[in-house]
């Protein structure tokens, strides 16, 4: 297992801060700290200065000092000093405050969607009154959209584990298993095959419950005549996979078959257009146009897809509101669905990496949907 | 599975707000919302007014409207109006703002350790300038310390599931299983036995790794001569269990046996003193006094225990700094440990409920530690 290399990531962030004419940013969001430094523990934060000569400062507590030294070294983290608080010495946030003062920062960016009100108050306690804390949104998230080769390797490995796990347990769907037991077996297989964790609590929704886009698995037994939606994933080296398959237990009704074919066609058409420079809203509209041919566009009540990486849902979000273009190395899902309340639902989802002329699917398990 | 009843909980909170001379509180922390209303979804918040005649207002989005109605009814939630936002109407936080304005609240308490800076800014956008948002800490957490019978039932059931799971897989420790595979089998058993989830990522640390108080399971094979620390738990109806057992694979060294006996004695002495009105710091000191007899007090580098409920770690925290007394219905852990760096560690932990004259252990799996 090669560690993910973080080299140059802080450098890119510094360039961005310089362009924005910002002086420094305090990174508290755990996945952003991991992205920039390679640190995997539960308590770490990072102070990054725009000035290219100033080392960044990584803050953690005594439990993680040794781990931080190892992980930041292994990941080739850009020039960063590690500051470990101990119960006798100054508190972690006091250390942050004193570093901000020492470097004469006047405006400190904070991650407003992550930092709690009380942590911000605690930091402010240690700052002089002439220093402002400035809420910011999505700065590191923007950098995280484009994946490098090692990140794509990790996501692909997560997808392979998930594919293999589903393939191992698919047969249970014909054996009157409950939704809950199927989810338990699927997740157990992912762990046995080398997942760090599951990506999220699996969705297993059968019969009329399949019309719930986010059906939590219940004790309901999966039986002949059910449509079953299975939405699941694994993580590997911190990176997520995301995949949905829909199955018919026995022969589907003519209407269900028509819906399945329509959703398949929508997904195929979108994937054919997914490449560098494609617009998010164009992809979304493409899927809805296909569903509109059978007057089912109003039964697709969520976005078409989302970025996948250190978070299961991250930038970019693929929807009618996304006017921006895909770039090389973006990893996204394409997941059209149709939900007929009280009857059934169909969703088909793959995780794909954007390349120059096409999109390469990282989830590869077959889409044969009729199980008999 | 009886739903947990939340009746009177909001009433108790209202009384507390009246005593504090507060007007209203906005509850955003998910487990606090669950505690007060019974709602289990991922997006719900609650506005509670001190005035006894004013119904509380529960806010959620379209995905959860139906679920909220069912869950708040099933739990006998105190008088609460459900406000569901939809994509066309005003945003959720705008609704919160307009309710605060409508009821002429001047000072709105917020949960400072939970609410993010950006959510607070969004709420403030919809408030008039004469309205203040006032950071608060731990108000609902204080109410959550004392568990009622249904909560104790749920925790006890979680403990039973965890006990049975460990009992089912314990034999693997003698079969050269890896730490990681043991954790996977243990967690799989808890799920099969009816857990909602695991309480936290299990700790399985063997050999010299057992001296790490929070050793993440690795590929290391557990072999003859190892000491193994297993710290794990299940959740049931949202409530957690927490238990640690230490095993010796084959005969332990004389020193390890001495340490095990000392930690056992510390735990027994503390449990004997755990009852209504016992002081947290007295319990902590009792454990350290026992370890001091063998000059091992400095090898116990964490708190003695913590409350367990909707969170795995919650009020009260049992340490030298806790000057307050235990009350009837508190559920806490007692978990002394000794860690000899590079050699081995021993920790023994039970989850207990405080009663009038004693403490009743909810984790009951035996403490026989030598496996041969």
Give a brief description:
The structure is a homodimer of 372-residue chains. The first copy, chain A, has helices at residues 9-19, 30-37, 65-74, 92-102, 117-125, 139-144, 149-169, 179-192, 254-273, 280-292; strands at 24-27, 44-49, 56-61, 80-85, 107-111, 132-136, 197-198, 203-206, 227-232, 234-236, 239-240, 243-249, 305-307, 314-318, 331-334, 337-340, 344-347, 350-354, 359-361, 370-371.
Task: Please describe the topology of this protein.
2 copies of one chain form a homodimer.
Chain A: H1 9-19, E1 24-27, H2 30-37, E2 44-49, E3 56-61, H3 65-74, E4 80-85, H4 92-102, E5 107-111, H5 117-125, E6 132-136, H6 139-144, H7 149-169, H8 179-192, E7 197-198, E8 203-206, E9 227-232, E10 234-236, E11 239-240, E12 243-249, H9 254-273, H10 280-292, E13 305-307, E14 314-318, E15 331-334, E16 337-340, E17 344-347, E18 350-354, E19 359-361, E20 370-371
Parallel strand pairs in A: 1-5, 3-4, 5-6, 12-20
Antiparallel strand pairs in A: 1-2, 2-3, 7-10, 8-9, 9-12, 10-11, 13-14, 15-18, 16-17, 18-19
Helix pairs in contact in A: 4-5, 7-8, 9-10
Give structural attributes.
Creatine Amidinohydrolase, Chain A, domain 1; Creatine Amidinohydrolase; four-stranded mixed β-sheet; 372 residues; 2 domains; six-stranded mixed β-sheet; homodimer; 33% helix; alpha+beta
